[in-house]
Amino acid sequence: MKRKSLTQFLIEQQRSECALPADVRLLIEVVARACKAIGHHVGKGALSGVLGSLTTENVQGEVQKKLDVISNEILLEANEWGGNLSAMASEEMDTIHPIPNPYPRGGYLLLFDPLDGSSNIDVNVSIGTIFSVLRMPADADGREATEADFLQPGRQQVAAGYALYGPQTMLVLTVGTGVYGFTLDREMGSWLLTHERMQIPADTAEFAINTSNTRHWAPPVRRYVDECLAGKTGPRGKDFNMRWVASMVTDIHRIMTRGGIFMYPWDAREPGKPGKLRLLYEANPMSFLVEQAGGAATNGQQRILDVQPQGLHERVSVLLGSKNEVELVTAYHAEG
Ligand code: AHM
Ligand code: MG
């Protein structure tokens, strides 16, 4: 069976009604190439000495893994010279990375979590890369990007996606025309379209949450999960299954494939923080993908894509996946 390559898919998007700008097409291709390189390192593991931790911490106070830093470097180097970007931002960097001289600057901003699910790196469990593309403000007129330029609500994303380094290496992408999944043909080195128009069923009987935090949850989350756990004889009238990989990319990919709800809600461990996951390079790209696949994504109060960011590394409470379940747990938040 002859499959469509990522390049062909993107050129068709460029020629279609959505008229994907050529520079967005090119920068997605560069990100995809960088993910291929990251996947190569992930696949080598102990053979190339990339496992284990460094002594450094990132801006969030998390000890960096060697692969966090390697993946960040790969994405920066790959995307610096293409001429499509004005600046980049990452989970692993305190502040933004403007495109350095002598490279030309473009009209877009790229954000990424270079290696998500870091706690799974050393135990050979699936991990991923998450990315988001924003436009530079229209009045920027060639000036250098600032952090404020990145603080755009997620609904303004031009493209978003993730790479999943699992039994197969996959790239799951949206440019606002649905969600498409590409599988890396490792022999040929090309991304081939294998999952056309991915759709999340509105109903599900599977939830994903770190239940070791149960005692810290807010009442609406506790109520929702308790009702799922009550099974057939409870208010939901059906048995639920639970899955938690602790790699957001992998948990979301399962939901993209067969439905489910993923929650990393606010909890009382750090009452001052709105959640664990970061808005700009984790929650926003995933919410864009999930909505494009027919699902929903809220922070309990509002649609995540409508949250006005205040800071580059801002955190957010995340409830996303099958539409009816997300709406139910969101309604519980409104009831208090
Ligand atoms: P990371 O970006 O440092 O890898 O952290 C984000 C990860 C998500 O992939 C995952 O959903 C969550 O943290 C797991 O958290 P926990 O360790 O509480 O299970
Ligand atoms: Mg992450």
Account of the 3D structure:
It is a single chain. The chain has 336 residues and is of the alpha+beta class. It folds into two domains: 6-195, Fructose-1,6-Bisphosphatase, Chain A, domain 1 (2-Layer Sandwich); 206-335, D-Maltodextrin-Binding Protein, domain 2 (3-Layer(aba) Sandwich), CATH 3.40.190. The protein is 30% helix and 24% strand. It contains eight helices and 17 strands. The chain has helices spanning 6-15, 22-44, 66-80, 147-150, 219-229, 248-258, 279-292, 323-335; strands spanning 53-57, 63-65, 85-90, 97-98, 108-116, 127-135, 159-165, 169-174, 179-185, 190-195, 206-208, 241-242, 261-264, 277-278, 296-298, 315-316, 318-321. It has an eight-stranded mixed β-sheet, with helices on both faces. It has a five-stranded mixed β-sheet with strand order 12-11-13-17-15, with helices on both faces. Helix 2 (22-44) runs antiparallel to helix 3. It is globular and about 65 Å long. The chain starts with 5 loop residues before the first helix and ends with a helix. Pathway: Carbohydrate biosynthesis; Calvin cycle. GO terms for molecular function: fructose 1,6-bisphosphate 1-phosphatase activity; magnesium ion binding.
CATH superfamily of the largest domain: Fructose-1,6-Bisphosphatase, subunit A, domain 1
As a percent range, the share of strand residues is 15-25%
Number of strands: 17
List low-pLDDT spans: none
Identify the strand order in the major beta sheet: 4-3-5-6-7-8-9-10
Query: What would CATH call the class of the largest domain?
Result: Alpha Beta
How large, in whole angstroms, is the Cα Rg?
Answer: 19 Å
Small molecules bound: 2,5-anhydro-1,6-di-O-phosphono-D-mannitol, magnesium ion
Distance between the termini: 53 Å
Overall number of structural domains: 2
Provide a count of the helices. Answer: 8
* Topology as a string of helices (H) and strands (E): HHEEHEEEEHEEEEEHEHEEHEEEH
The CATH architecture assignment of the largest domain turns out to be 2-Layer Sandwich
Could you please say which CATH topology of the largest domain applies here? Fructose-1,6-Bisphosphatase, Chain A, domain 1
Mean pLDDT: 95
Assign an overall shape.
Answer: globular
EC number: 3.1.3.11
Domain Fructose-1-6-bisphosphatase class I N-terminal: 5-196
Protein name: Fructose-1,6-bisphosphatase class 1
Pathway: Carbohydrate biosynthesis; Calvin cycle
